[in-house]
Design goal:
The chain is mostly beta strands. Helices cover 12% and strands 41% of the residues. Strands 2-9-8-4-5 form a five-stranded mixed sheet, with no helix packed on it. The protein is globular, with a radius of gyration of 21 Å.
């Protein structure tokens, strides 16, 4: 009886070690700063070798993965990248890794801001007394969307950004 319990425990331990070995990790990014369109290599382990089976996010927006190996992913910084860690999800096993440092999007240098640099004001009806917001790619189109919570109306309004 004791021998059977020990062998069962060893079998469970082996299965746990096997599943932990498949969890992706991010060791580094080739650069942690850059403008939209910058090519970046993500170095790590246990990435899916099929490019489309890796979901890479720069904050709320998903980046296109152009190539993949078990230890590196090539991606392009997407529009809407936020100052946050980069995440990689191996879709095949539903496990996510986070970069050790956040990515910081940079912009072209200007000496001054003029009126034409700023878009016209846009107002969106989101109900009375909005109290919380969240940004994320809620519709999966690669652009950031906004969710607004209203305390007065007990409602949530989701503003979807169209591609283009």
């Amino acid at each position: 009886m004791i021998l059977r319990k020990i062998s069962l425990c060893l079998l469970m331990l082996s299965a746990a070690e096997l599943s932990l070995a498949q969890i992706p990790t991010i060791a580094s990014l080739s650069t942690y700063t850059g403008p939209v369109g910058t090519a970046i290599t993500i170095n790590g382990s246990n990435f899916n070798t099929t490019a489309s089976s890796n979901a890479v996010y720069f904050g709320p927006v998903r980046a296109a993965v152009s190539s993949a190996t078990a230890t590196s992913l090539s991606v392009i910084v997407p529009a809407g990248a936020a100052y946050s860690p980069v995440t990689v999800t191996n879709v095949g096993i539903r496990a996510t890794a986070t970069s050790p440092l956040p990515f910081r999007q940079t912009f072209a240098t200007k000496n001054s801001i003029v009126a034409s640099d700023i878009d016209a004001n846009l107002d969106f009806g989101v109900g009375n007394n909005p109290v919380e917001t969240a940004i994320g790619d809620f519709d999966g189109n690669g652009t950031p969307d906004i969710a607004v919570v209203n305390s007065t109306g007990n409602s949530v309004t989701i503003l979807l950004r169209a591609v283009g």
